Amino acid sequence: MKDADKYYMQMALDLAAKAMGRTSPNPMVGAVVVRGGEVVGRGYHARAGTPHAEVHALREAGNSARGATLYVTLEPCCHHGRTGPCTEAVIEAGISRVVLAMSDPNPLVAGKGVQRLREAGLQVETGVLEEASRKLNEVFIKYITTRLPFVVLKTAMSLDGKIATAGGESQWITGPYSREYVHHLRDRYDAILVGVGTVLADNPSLTARLPSGGGRDPVRVILDSRARTPQNAKVVTQASRAPTIIVTTPGAPPERVRALQEAGAEIIEVPREDAGVNLALLLRELGRREITGVLVEGGARINGSFVKANLVDKVYWFMAPKIIGGAEAPGPVGGSGFSRLNDALQVQDITIYRFGEDICLEGYAK
Ligand code: AOF
Ligand code: ZN
Question: What Enzyme Commission number does this protein have (predicted)?
Answer without folding.
Answer: 3.5.4.26, 1.1.1.193
